[in-house]
Design brief:
homodimer, alpha+beta, Nuclear Transport Factor 2, Chain: A, six-stranded mixed beta sheet, protein transport (chains A, B), NTF2-like_dom_sf (chains A, B), transport (chains A, B)
Chain lengths: ~130, ~130
């Protein structure tokens, strides 16, 4: 499968889950996964899900503008760079963000998308436009 | 050495070189290195240096705002996320950018910084503020 298509499908899946059922994101992380959020690091599914669950908004909507993908390392991983904006309520200004996902390669015998675990995220919330 | 300190030193070295002697960046790339610039991919030192050399400005000044670092993969690499702005002339507005570097681990016997080769970059130029 085309790596760019896999990356886009993963990003669509990730942000649709983030916007509709944030708690389910926990299934995408492994113990080695790390989230860097505004300079603070969280490691492992429990810590990452705890941080994402504690964000100070209940509803949100991501608008993805760009998805760039490159091969990452000798083990078949991918580096996925996403930029876009997030709106946390009908009265709120959209906040621009950039994010990096580093999904692990699929496990043997499983589909590429569903086993894109080991996600590493870096989220920088930029100023409202 | 602390990985965050290595990442910051690498970023300072990279952008100082970019701003003062852009052609010298070619020495940081290997054949497997890839640059994604505004959605277009360039692979290997010659193609990457050619693209960077062809950018439509002769002078520039990067202002780095954030540097985030995570371990990347089982071989000791790093994932470095940079955000900031670039000004391409005294009369020009700064352009915000985000960039990802994926430096390879240092070779045996060499210093960590100077052998941070195999850089992968993704540069998204956002709108002027």
């Amino acid at each position: 499968m085309d790596p760019d298509a896999v990356a886009k499908a993963f990003v669509e899946h990730y942000y649709r889950t983030f916007d509709t059922n944030r708690a389910a994101l926990v299934g995408l992380y492994q113990e080695a996964s790390m989230l860097t959020f505004e300079g603070h690091k969280f490691q492992g599914p429990a810590a990452i899900a705890g941080k994402l669950g504690s964000l100070p908004f209940q509803q949100c909507e991501h608008q993805i503008v760009t998805v760039d993908c490159q091969p990452s390392g000798p083990t078949g991983g991918m580096l996925v760079f996403v930029s876009g904006s997030i709106r946390t309520g009908p009265e709120e200004h959209p906040i621009k963000f950039s994010q990096v996902c580093n999904p692990a390669p699929p496990r043997s015998g499983s589909s590429p998308l569903l086993s894109l675990v080991g996600v590493r995220l870096i989220l920088i919330a930029c100023s409202p436009r």
